[in-house]
Amino acid sequence: MAVKPTKSEKKVAYDTKLCQLLDEYTQILVVAADNVGSNQLQNIRKGLRGDSVVLMGKNTMMKRSVRIHAENTGNQAFLNLIPLLVGNVGLIFTKGDLKEVSEEVAKYKVGAPARVGLVAPIDVVVPPGNTGLDPSQTSFFQVLNIPTKINKGTVEIITPVELIKKGDKVGSSEAALLAKLGIRPFSYGLIVLSVYDNGSVFSPEVLDLTEDDLIEKFAIGVSMVTSLSLALSYPTLASAPHMFINAYKNVLAIAVATEYSFPQAEKVKEYLEDPSKFAVAVAPVAAAHSSAGPAAVSKVEEKKEEPAEESDDDMGFSLFD
Q1: The pLDDT of residue 309
Q2: Mean pLDDT throughout 272-293?
Q3: pLDDT digits (tens, 9 = 90+) for 53-94
Q4: What's the CATH number where 21 sits?
Q5: Do 215 and 181 share a structural domain?
Q6: Which domain holds residue 46?
Q7: CA–CA distance, 71 with 65 (Å, rounded to integer)
Q8: d(CA 220, CA 218)
Q9: Residue 71 within any structural domain of the chain
Q10: Which region ranges are annotated with the description Disordered (predicted)?
């Protein structure tokens, strides 16, 4: 008969396993496990098997193991996990793509009934229609102020009713009514709360960002740095091109207003002194139109007169003359 390990032996084994996972994996998802059953958790483990490991445990044990491991290895980045270990949470160690793993975890949600005392995670609305209940059950609907009518010997709800609001606790009447109607309004599963990646901790919403979103945010950041640098007259890689252009404009303005000149300003000064030099390409076209004007008009008039003469000849000499 196998001897069951003692509590101290279990703690040592758990500490060894957690430290081994911390050494092997650099990506960790911190997940909430409220209302998640053992069978559901087992299915999640099977779905993630291959490149991910799910580890549950008491927060005090996890925090203690993380602290000791950080001291032994000198890697203080592990300490960023400690503030995240609050509430009923677990850790998913993974070598796969973080977004794909979080999406895989979200697939294993199971519908659950509204139990008395639970805080509703969503609004619960009872839809209109025939409930299939006999008229003796109308007391449930009257207590909850749900308008009903008797139709063909059964109770029918007339209009949709918001039975429970998000954040409210489920009462005994609401729970009993939903159970009678066969409605399981809530769904529970592992919910990703935070992401740990090589010492950095960030929100899971970051995983939904596309490459275009990152480029847009980067461009906004560069724009802000540029504006701040220009306002402070502090040169940076972002503001240097603008500073050079502004300096060129200032020097060019001085050169235009004075006799001073430099190679980059000569063409501008030449244009300001005689703009007609830069209209060479336009002048021949305009001259061609002006010189050929009278001749072209006379030719057009001749072409317009020719059809008129032919029509006169036709009128004067017919086939019968």
Answers
A1: 45
A2: 59
A3: 999 999 999 999 999 999 998 989 999 999 999 989 999 999
A4: 3.30.70.1730
A5: no
A6: 12-109+189-208
A7: 10
A8: 5
A9: yes
A10: 289-321
Q: How far is Cα of residue 11 from the mean position of the Cα atoms in its chain?
A: 41
Same domain, 53 and 196: yes
Angle at 34 between CA 165 and CA 177, to 5 degrees: 40
**Tokens (6 digits) for 150:** 């008797």
In the block, which residue shows the tokens 């091109």?
241
In the structure, what pLDDT confidence band is assigned to residue 279 with cuts at 50, 70 and 90? low
- CA 120 to mean position of chain CA atoms: 26
153 shares its domain with 71:
no
Residues 103 and 194 in one domain: yes
**Mean pLDDT for the stretch of residues 211-236:** 87
Q: 103 with 33, same domain?
A: yes
Pair of tokens at residue 96: 């796969």
Calculate the alpha carbon distances from 19 to 89, 185, 195 in Å. 18, 40, 18
Tally Cβ neighbours within 10 Å of residue 4: 7
Q: CB–CB of 170/116 below 8 Å?
A: yes
**Is residue 305 in a domain?**
no
What does DSSP assign to residue 207? Answer: G
Give Cα separations from 260 to 91, 149, 253, 255, 257 (angstroms).
72, 96, 10, 5, 8
302 vs 309: CA distance, rounded Å:
11
